[in-house]
Amino acid sequence: MATQAEAAEMEARRSAYRTPAGARIAAGIAAGAVGGILMIGCMMIYASVTDAGATMPLKALGALVYGVEALVAGPTAMLVGVLIQLALAIVIGIIFALFVSRETSTVAALFAGVVVGIAVWAAMDLFAMPQVNPTMAARIALMPLGYFFAHVLFGVGLAMSPAFIRMFAKERHERVRVQTQQILPI
After folding, report:
1. 36 and 160 Cβ atoms separated by less than 8 Å
2. What is the pLDDT, as a whole number, of residue 158?
3. How confident is the model at residue 6 (pLDDT cuts 50, 70, 90)?
4. What span, in angstroms and rounded, lies between the C-alpha atoms of 127 and 182?
5. Do residues 133 and 77 touch, judged by C-beta distance below 8 A?
6. Segment 43-47 mean pLDDT
7. Is 27 within 8 Å of 161 (Cβ atoms)?
8. Does the structure show a pLDDT above 90 at 136?
9. Radius of gyration of the chain (CA)
């Protein structure tokens, strides 16, 4: 039969390895934002290299709100495009972070992230975009390789989730370790 101090120590050790939901959500936000920024950067570089204009991907995203007029609109449509991209990336990042743990290996996280990125690419390219944002679908049809590679990079950003979970949960883990040492002096 365990004493009260031993039971408290065992519970403290168990809870030290449970990842709080807040750490997972924060990790998902961070990983999604990194993935979204990688996507935006990739698409802007690709559009610039192919002479479509570096701002075209942002305007095409803004077409979700402004329609085809976004292609000739100014910075407002581009800002809306960035916000749409980051919002979707963060939502997917949070969902991804809820399904990985801080013990997930780098290789496994990278594989899972790239698979999710490719699945998002397929869903967006084949189903969602033609229905929801036909203006962007028409622009993306002009650069399918860049759009695919941008989603692979998005998956690389998602793969950072376990590292972010460890980072955001570390403070709690250290706090629990200190409390455990105070309960049972060595």
Report:
1. no
2. 98
3. confident
4. 57
5. no
6. 97
7. yes
8. yes
9. 21
Q: Give every CB contact of residue 96 below 8 A, 6+ residues apart in sequence.
A: 28, 31, 32, 112, 113, 116, 158, 161
**Would residue 5 count as lying in a domain?**
no
Domain boundaries, position 37 = 20-183
What φ, ψ does residue 73 adopt, rounded to 5°?
A: -75, 170
Cβ-based neighbour number of residue 129 at 10 Å: 21
Q: What is the pLDDT of residues 142-170, one digit of tens each?
A: 999 999 999 999 999 999 999 999 999 87
Task: Provide the domain count of the chain.
Answer: 1
Residues 6+ apart with CB under 8 A from 92: 32, 35, 116, 120, 158
pLDDT at 91: 98
CA distance 68 to 126: 20
Inside any domain, residue 38? yes
Q: Is residue 154 part of a domain?
A: yes
Above pLDDT 90, what percent of the chain? 77
d(CA 170, CA 120): 30
Q: How confident is the model at residue 183 (pLDDT cuts 50, 70, 90)?
A: low
Task: Please count the residues of the chain.
Answer: 186
15 lies in a domain?
A: no
